[in-house]
Amino acid sequence: MKAVGTFKGTLVGDKELTSALNWLGKKTEKKFIKRAVGAAGKVVSTSAKSNVRNLVGPGSAGMLEKSIGTKNILYKNSGSAVSVIGPRTNTSGKKRKVQGWAKKFDPNRKPSNYGHLVEFGTKPHWIPCKNVNGVIIWKAWLHPGTPARPFMRKAYDNNKGRSLDTMKESLHKDISAEAKKLAGKRPVTAASSGGK
Domain for residue 87, yes or no? Predict the structure, then answer.
């Protein structure tokens, strides 16, 4: 599915959080950033699933709704992390009767093949003739097109601020836990124990 938008979060003005990230080791920092970006992506994907239910209707939204997920990627060289949100390619239709013929796997029922058509709509277009073993199942016809029902764009637009807040909360939580863990391992010195 075509990318709906990009969200770049920069932690500007949060000096404590920025200095805490610099204080962590690179490996731990990257793990925390990837986890935070994943939490932010989850906010958008959950909203997108809800949008599919509301826009398309509960009966026909099943597979598209089920397919929406996140994939979190950490670019090790730059330290950047992204959350790719949308219909996953590993979700597909079940065996079902197609036009009265025997049950077979319907590869066109992959939400990753049609999610963009729901999101952006379609123009009027010709549906070709269906011919099975010389028998015409239906003649070619002009489809009137479908209106756009944006479920991803709406989820993205409505959750930008909430995603950033979720990301910051996740980072604060992870950094605080790591600080407590490291504080427990630090040896007590004369200066830190109040001695001379």
Answer: yes
